[in-house]
Specification:
The protein has about 350 residues and is mostly helical. Helices cover about 75% and strands about 0% of the residues. About 35% of the residues are buried.
C-alpha cells in the first residue's frame, strides 16, 4: 500500500511521447504552417534590414534592401523550380541542376574568361552578362526538351540521362580550359563559381523580378493540374491532361527560373532540395496550393536568416552558398541512404 501511494500516476500533461509531438507537427493545418512561416519571414527580413542600423542610414539601408530582394528572388525561383521538377519527374531527390544548368553556367564563364580574359568578364556590363547567360541556358534547355520530346522515344528518364551526360561533358570541357588558363585569370574566374548575394547589380533585380513573377503567375494558375501530375502519367491522361505538352511547359518554366537565379547570383545546387524536402515535411497534403508558398517562405527564411547569422555571428567567416551546399549535400546523401523517397 505505501508503495502504491508513493508512485504517482502520470497525467496527460506530465508526459508527451516524441512520436505524438512529431505527429502533431506533421498533421498541423497548412494554413497554420503558412501563417507561422509568413510571420517568421517578416521577422527575419525586418531584423536583417534594421538590426544595428547605424552610421549613414541612407547608404546602408538601400544596400541591405538590395541584398534582401536578391535573396527573396532566389528563394522563389529555386524553390518553385525544384518543386515543379520533382513533380514532373515523380522523384524527390532530383533538382533541375541534374539537367546540367550549373555546369553550363560554369562553362559559359570559363569560355568567356578564356577567350576574352577574366578581367574583361568581370568588367563587362552586368545586364549584358545576365542576358547572355539567361538566353544561352534557356535555348539549351529548349533545344534539349524539343529534341527529346519530339523523337520516337519521348522518355523523361532518357531526358534526365542525357542531361546528366551533358553536364559531365560541360564540366570536363570547363576543367580543360581552366587548366590552360593563367593562375591569375583562374583566381578571378573562381569567384564566379559560387553564389554571392553581396554584389548583386540593382538594375538586374527589376528584370529578374518581372520574369520570375510571370512564370510564377502561370504556375499558380496551373497548380491544380500539377496536383494531377503527381498522380502519375496514366491518371493524368485519363482525366484529360495533355501530359507531354504540360510536362514540356513545366520544364521550360523550370529552366527559365533556374537560368534567372543562376545568372543573378550564381549556382546553388542543393538549396532547392533542402527547402522542398522541408516543405514536404511541413505540408502533408501535398497540394501545390500550399506547397508553393510554403517552399518559398522556407527558402526566404533559410537565405535571409543564414546570411544574418553569417554576418552578425561569424563575421563573414564563410560564404552562405558554401553552408547551403554542405547542408544540402548531407540531406541528399541521407535521402539516398534512407531509400524511402522515390
Amino acid at each position: 500500500m505505501p508503495e502504491a501511494l508513493a508512485t504517482k500516476p502520470r497525467t496527460a500533461h506530465s508526459f508527451v511521447p516524441k512520436s505524438t509531438l512529431r505527429s502533431r507537427i506533421r498533421n498541423a493545418s497548412p494554413r497554420l504552417v503558412l501563417g507561422i512561416l509568413l510571420a517568421l519571414t517578416a521577422v527575419v527580413v525586418c531584423f536583417f534590414l534594421f538590426f544595428e542600423l547605424k552610421g549613414n542610414v541612407g547608404y546602408i539601408l538601400p544596400r541591405r534592401a538590395i541584398k534582401v530582394a536578391a535573396m527573396l528572388l532566389v528563394a522563389v525561383a529555386v524553390g518553385v523550380s525544384t518543386l515543379l521538377f520533382q513533380t514532373v519527374t515523380a522523384n524527390r531527390i532530383l533538382t533541375p541542376s541534374i539537367m546540367g544548368f550549373d555546369s553550363l553556367y560554369i562553362l559559359i564563364q570559363t569560355v568567356l574568361a578564356f577567350t576574352l580574359g577574366a578581367a574583361s568578364v568581370v568588367a563587362a556590363p552586368p545586364t549584358l552578362q545576365f542576358g547572355v547567360e539567361v538566353v544561352l541556358m534557356v535555348v539549351f534547355s529548349a533545344l534539349l526538351y524539343r529534341w527529346m520530346f519530339t523523337g520516337a522515344t519521348r522518355s523523361l528518364h532518357l531526358l534526365l540521362l542525357v542531361g546528366v551526360i551533358l553536364g559531365s561533358l560541360f564540366r570536363g570541357f570547363s576543367s580543360l580550359l581552366q587548366r590552360l588558363m593563367e593562375p591569375s585569370e583562374f583566381i578571378i574566374l573562381q569567384d564566379l563559381f559560387f553564389a554571392s548575394f553581396n554584389n548583386v547589380d540593382p538594375a538586374l533585380l527589376g528584370v529578374s523580378a518581372g520574369i520570375i513573377a510571370a512564370v510564377c503567375a502561370a504556375v499558380w494558375r496551373g497548380r491544380h493540374t500539377l496536383d494531377v501530375l503527381t498522380l502519375g502519367r496514366e491518371v493524368a491522361i485519363n482525366v484529360g491532361v495533355d501530359h507531354r505538352r504540360t510536362v514540356m511547359l513545366v520544364l521550360l518554366g523550370c529552366s527559365l527560373l533556374v537560368a534567372v537565379s543562376t545568372a543573378l547570383v550564381g549556382p546553388v545546387t542543393f538549396f532547392g532540395l533542402l527547402v522542398v524536402s522541408l516543405g514536404y515535411q511541413l505540408c502533408r497534403g501535398f497540394s501545390h496550393t500550399w506547397l508553393l508558398p510554403i517552399v518559398v517562405l522556407i527558402g526566404a527564411i533559410a537565405l535571409v536568416g543564414g546570411q544574418l547569422v553569417l554576418e552578425k555571428v561569424f563575421g563573414f567567416g564563410t560564404a552562405l552558398s558554401v553552408v547551403i551546399e554542405f547542408t544540402g549535400g548531407i540531406l541528399f546523401l541521407y535521402l539516398l541512404l534512407k531509400g524511402s523517397l522515390k
